[in-house]
Amino acid sequence: MKNIMITVMTIGLLSPIAVFAADSASLKPDALAHQVHIRSLAASCAACHGTQGNAAAGPLVSDTASTTALAGVDKNHIVTKLMAYKSGASTATVMHRHAKGLSDEEIIALADYFSQQSANPNATLKSQKLRADHAH
Amino acid sequence: MHTRRRDFLKLAGFAAAVGTTGLSFSAHAKAKIPHMGRVVVIGGGYAGATAAKYLRMWSMGAIEVVVIEPSQQFVSCPLSNLVLGGSKSIDELTFGYDMLKANHGIDWVQDQVTAIDVSAKKIQLQRGEMHYDRLIIAPGIDFIYDSLPMLQSAEAQQKIPHAWKAGWQTVNLRKQLEAMPDGGVFVMNVPAAPYRCPPGPYERAAQVAYYFKQHKPKSKVIVLDANAEIVSKKGLFTKVFNETYAGIVDYRANSMVTAVDVAAKSVTTEFDTVKADVINIIPPQRAGKPAQMAQLNNIDKRWCEVDFLSYESKLAANVHVIGDAVSAALPKSAHMATNQAKICANAIVQLMAGALPDANPVFANTCYSYVSNDSAMHVANVYRYDAAKKIMVSAEGGGVSAAPSVLEGSYATSWANNIWSDVLT
């Protein structure tokens, strides 16, 4: 049992679950349903913040000009920022729209999720020449 | 097909993830290398490629995933209007599937689906057949030529491209714009909603106007919109057309295209016939052909009705439909296609483990439109499942930019780089 828990944590793909599991011998169905809920919500952020919060390197890398990587970022930092966007205490270009649409619980759970993802340097996707036989 | 030894370890993690099935970890860990079944994904666009990746990730390799896709390359529709504006080349929007396949152990078949038998759980390909436990159809769009039959042939589309699936038609349209003399007229249309990418046609008009303003300032862009008003980002596009591109863009609402004279290069609406130098007609659309083969396009004979918790078709068990083909009060955008793919993948992992899908899916949509080479504006919303209505509804806080900006142009580039990387690596 213990070995498997360690394996789960080593794999790291579902580390929030691993943490839950390490805390108690049996996993509560509510907690699992919550994890399943949060992983798909967190995955929705990937369009701007990358798979599991690992933002792709783009031509623009300064903090103000490109979207932010979230993997491994301190949980409280994420919560503070999103709560401020939600309340209007901080202004944002786009993120206030998302923050206002999330519940406080979702903001905390997302921050928890992203803080526990490991920051992986991405192999960069390279564009290529369009083939002559492409259909449309 | 095959299960690798490392999947054994992955499955231990998987059991933890879907422990609601009630099986103990030790029972799983000591079992033979398990195989939860095979999911076949038809289509390798934004929706299909994403579903394949997340099925593999979230099942920790326990679900075998096969993608059927006829094209060798992925060409992004998002940003393809910039090819028309002249600030991007099509090659910057073209990618291979190699990283996606290798990183996630996805089986890939380059072929075309010719028939789908949902009762036998079997699909027919040009080169053989394949069985599935669950099928995901991510077919994109198909064009409807009933009202514009003169545009159906390849020859006609050589002269009047739709350029609404990015690729050679996009390149063709750009070449026509480049060849057009200053003082020429470009006529394009907007089909009646719903269609792929609600703000896309207006972004296209702005991109062509941007090109004309720089290089052919006496030229005109005439936009014939079948809708009563601009469908998306209305205030913003109105301002861009009337101010930034004043004297170039001539926007006409309630102007459905009823006929096109391909040889004479003219476009007819209920009220008028407009002569043009370059024409772009975006035909009305429906769910792509594989969805039609399975007879799942039950809404207006165009779009597919699904359960928004799993994207399972309302018409066929174990068959899921995602992306632009779905009938929903959701924008048919690339970000939305990836969201639907992820909710669907998440649900399938649960269902194949004997557990229930997430009962409250929530996701975000962010969509940028470029109005010049470097300036963009957004529409962004969170959507959440309404259990009473059984549909996805907008949450609070959604909306659009106050004005286009260069900062948002850089965000839009970052969005593209991240979504491409999410879908294709």
Labels describing this entry:
heterodimer; A: 136 residues; mainly alpha; Cytochrome Bc1 Complex, Chain D, domain 2; 7 helices; 52% helix; globular; disordered N terminus; B: 425 residues; alpha/beta; FAD/NAD(P)-binding domain; 2 domains; five-stranded parallel beta sheet; four-stranded parallel beta sheet; 12 helices; 31% helix
Outline:
Chain A has seven helices and no strands. Chain A has helices at 2-11, 15-23, 29-44, 46-49, 75-87, 95-101, 104-115.
Q: Whole-number radius of gyration of chain B?
A: 23 Å
**So what's the overall shape of chain A?**
globular
Total count of helical runs of at least 4 residues of chain B: 12
**Mean pLDDT rating of chain A:** 77
The poorly predicted ranges of chain B are 1-33
User: What's the mean pLDDT score of chain B?
Assistant: 93
Query: Under CATH, the topology of the largest domain in chain B is which?
Result: FAD/NAD(P)-binding domain
Content-based structural category of chain A: mainly alpha
Shape of chain B from CA axes? globular
CATH class of chain A: Mainly Alpha
How many separate domains make up the residues of chain A?
1
The level-1 CATH class of the largest domain in chain B: Alpha Beta
Strand content of chain A: under 5%
CATH topology of chain A: Cytochrome Bc1 Complex, Chain D, domain 2
| Class inferred from helices and paired strands of chain B | alpha/beta
**Helical content band of chain B:** 25-40%
Work out the number of β strands of chain B.
23
Number of helices of chain A: 7
What does this structure look like?
Chain A is built from 7 helices and no strands. Chain A is mainly alpha-helical. Chain A has a single domain (2-115), classed as Cytochrome c-like domain (Cytochrome Bc1 Complex, Chain D, domain 2, Orthogonal Bundle). In chain A, α3 packs across α7 and α5 packs antiparallel against α7. Residues 1-25 and 58-63 of chain A have low confidence and may be disordered. By secondary structure, chain B is α/β, with parallel strands linked by helices. Chain B folds into 2 domains: 6-70 and 110-143 and 286-356, FAD/NAD(P)-binding domain; 149-284, FAD/NAD(P)-binding domain, CATH 3.50.50. Chain B has 12 helices and 23 strands. Chain B has helices at residues 6-17, 25-30, 46-58, 81-85, 98-104, 154-159, 168-179, 200-215, 234-244, 289-293, 334-352, 406-424; strands at residues 37-42, 63-68, 74-75, 94-95, 107-109, 113-117, 122-125, 128-131, 134-137, 141-143, 185-190, 220-225, 249-252, 257-261, 266-269, 273-275, 278-280, 285-287, 319-321, 362-370, 376-386, 391-394, 399-400. In chain B, the strands form 7 sheets. In chain B, strands 5-2-1-9-19 form a 5-stranded parallel beta sheet, with helices on one face. The longest helix of chain B has 19 residues, at 334-352. Chains A and B meet through α1, α2, α3, α4 and α6 of A and α1, α2, α3, β4 and α7 of B.
